[in-house]
Amino acid sequence: MASIPNLAVSDAYTLARRVFDQQISLTYAITWLAKNYPINKGSASDYISNFRYMMEGRRFTRTLNEFSMRYYFERITDEFLPEVLSKALIALMAHIEYYEAVQARLGRVTIMRTNRLIYDEYRQLLPVALRDNMLQIDLEKLVDRTQTRADIIRDLQNLKETDPTTVIISGITYSRDSKTIAQIKILRGFKCQLCGIQIPKKNGGFYIEAAHITPKRLRGRETPDNIIILCPNHHKEFDFGDVRTITRSPNQVSFLMNGVQHTIDLALR
């Protein structure tokens, strides 16, 4: 995509927002940019359309330069609620993954380091709950893409209390506990271990939750023998219902939950 002059980025953003707010037409915005700055209509269209994708949390395929990307995220951070910034970051990560995958198919190992740095920088500005949720989603995708089932099992079997508390994957720092939960979700197929349900997400993948048999407040560890994978309903029932453990070993746990007996396999296989 042709570079847009830095002086034009502010106007591109303003026009993109007005198009998104249905104050002007897409055609008008593209024509105005192409008339007033030395860029073609295709590049002008990318700057307008990418803003919409960010607002909606959808992948975009055309890359903005570093100045433009930072400018867009600065304005989005200043003008919108954190939930909107979260969507814009989801769109950016989807773009990063798309571009790197395209390059990989061409035999090129490419890491969009600048965009990943922007992603990490603005993710830190999110409230803790939103930031943690995004971290987990990122990790699930990264682990699924970079590790085989055998790799995951080996990592989980070799967990030690003395392991570093953080890991670095593709230049971004994550907590080791979050990586462990992502690995367990993948190993369990993103299925509730009580009812077997998978919850598809509109942007791909599945939604599922991790529950601690021994709660974290009681020093429950982030290890495979203490983590079960549950749908939201069963997770809430497990947390707030009448739960009584019958038997428990590193490979299996049996318990009564509101009078119904359940047995869950904890083995790594």
Describe the structure.
This protein is α+β, with helices and mostly antiparallel strands and 269 residues long. The chain has 2 domains: 6-126, no CATH class; 131-265, no CATH class. The protein has 10 helices and 9 strands. A 3-stranded antiparallel sheet has the order 7-8-9, with helices on one face. Strands 1-2 form a two-stranded antiparallel ribbon. Strands 3-4 form a two-stranded antiparallel sheet. A hairpin with a 5-residue loop joins strand 3 and strand 4 (206-207). The longest helix is centred in the middle third of the chain and has 24 residues, at 82-105. It is elongated. The relative contact order is 0.07.
Q: C-alpha Rg, in Å? A: 22 Å
Helix content: 40-55%
Count the E strands. Answer: 9
- With helices defined by DSSP (H or I, 4 residues minimum), what is the helix count? 10
Q: Approximately what portion of the residues adopt beta-strand conformation? A: 5-15%
Order of the strands making up the biggest sheet = 7-8-9
Taking the sheet with the most strands, its summary is: 3 strands, antiparallel
Summing up helix and strand content along with how strands pair, one would put the structural category as alpha+beta
Indicate the mean pLDDT. Answer: 92
Poorly predicted runs: none
Please tell me what the overall shape is. elongated
Count of structural domains: 2
Distance between the termini: 47 Å
Question: SSE string, helix = H, strand = E?
Answer: HHHHHHHHEEHEEEEHEEE
